[in-house]
Every structure is written in C-alpha cells, then in structure tokens.
From TrEMBL:
UniProt keyword list: Stress response, Transit peptide
Protein name (record): SHSP domain-containing protein
InterPro entries for the chain: A-crystallin/Hsp20_dom (IPR002068), HSP14.7/HSP23.5/HSP23.6-like (IPR044656), HSP20-like_chaperone (IPR008978)
Domain SHSP, first and last residues per copy: 39-150
Record-linked PANTHER family: 23.5 KDA HEAT SHOCK PROTEIN, MITOCHONDRIAL, SMALL HEAT SHOCK PROTEIN HSPF
Superkingdom of the source species: Eukaryota
Family: Belongs to the small heat shock protein (HSP20) family.
PROSITE patterns reported for this sequence: SHSP
Organism of origin: Aquilegia coerulea
Name of one Pfam family that matches: HSP20
Coiled coil spans: none
Length: 150
C-alpha cells in the first residue's frame, strides 16, 4: 500500500512497518539473487553444479530444499559466511578413466540479524537437503532498538 492511499491506515503501525521491512528484504534478496542460487558451472563432473532449490516460509522460519542427487550427509557441508548461507556438496566417484567428483555449490544471501544463525538446522535424506532458518522475533533482534518514550 502506498503512503497516503488509505486514510484509515496509520503509517506508524508496527505491523505495517514489519511487513514493509520484510518485503524490502525479500525484494533485495531476489534482486541480488534472481535465481536464489549462485553457481560456478553447470558441468556435472569436475566443477560445481547448480543446486536446484525450493523455498517456502512462514512467520517463524524460512525453509530451503536443495536437490543434491547422489550425495549423503557426509558429502554435504552447510555454513554461514558473513551474509551468505553456503551449501557445498562433493561425492568422489570412481570411473574407468579415473576418479571424478560430483560437486554442488550455492551461496544464498541472508541477513544474519533476521535469523537465529546458531540454530540453523540441516537434514540430508534421499538426495534432498532441507535447511531451516528460524526467524528472530522483533524483540530478539539486535538491529532494532526500542526507545522508551517518557
């Protein structure tokens, strides 16, 4: 809703501000990562392959599912580096002409101050990596300072 378009809406309403902030974050995420995933190559062997991913979210978390066929949990590494969720996977495969690797790599920009970074959960099962990023509640966030008005 545009400022001034509805006289019954209080522009200072906390819920509206929260929605605006969230929409801005989503717009920036999509703008900077149009495919959500950043990859180095599309070749299956010898370099990194794009992780096909699906995201959904609710009020409490963002859920990311990455397709990484052929990999097990021992082959996958999930980390947070500055403002990026980094997902890497590698499976060494012996072939008749030597050993080759199946690699996956993706970086997803996140805003660490919006999530419980130390509580990120990842589960690998049947070639699907499921990552859950729990959101911080407004009162838990360190980037919001509530000033007491006397």
């Amino acid at each position: 809703m545009f400022k001034g378009s509805d006289p019954d809406v209080d522009e200072d309403d906390d819920e509206i501000d929260l929605v605006r902030e969230f929409m801005k974050y989503k717009d920036e995420l999509v703008e900077e990562n149009p495919n959500i995933i950043n990859t180095t190559s599309s070749s299956l062997y010898g370099s990194a392959k794009k992780c096909r991913s699906h995201t959904k979210e609710d009020d409490g978390a963002v859920y990311l599912t990455c397709e990484m066929p052929g990999l097990s949990k021992e082959d996958v590494k999930v980390s947070v580096e500055k403002k990026f969720l980094v997902i890497e996977g590698e499976e060494m495969k012996e072939t008749s002409d030597g050993e080759k690797a199946r690699k996956y790599c993706c970086k997803i920009k996140i805003e660490p101050e919006l999530f419980k970074i130390n509580e990120i959960k990842a589960e690998m099962k049947n070639g699907l990596l499921k990552v859950t990023l729990s959101k911080l509640k407004e009162e838990e966030r360190k980037d919001i300072i509530h000033v007491k008005v006397d």
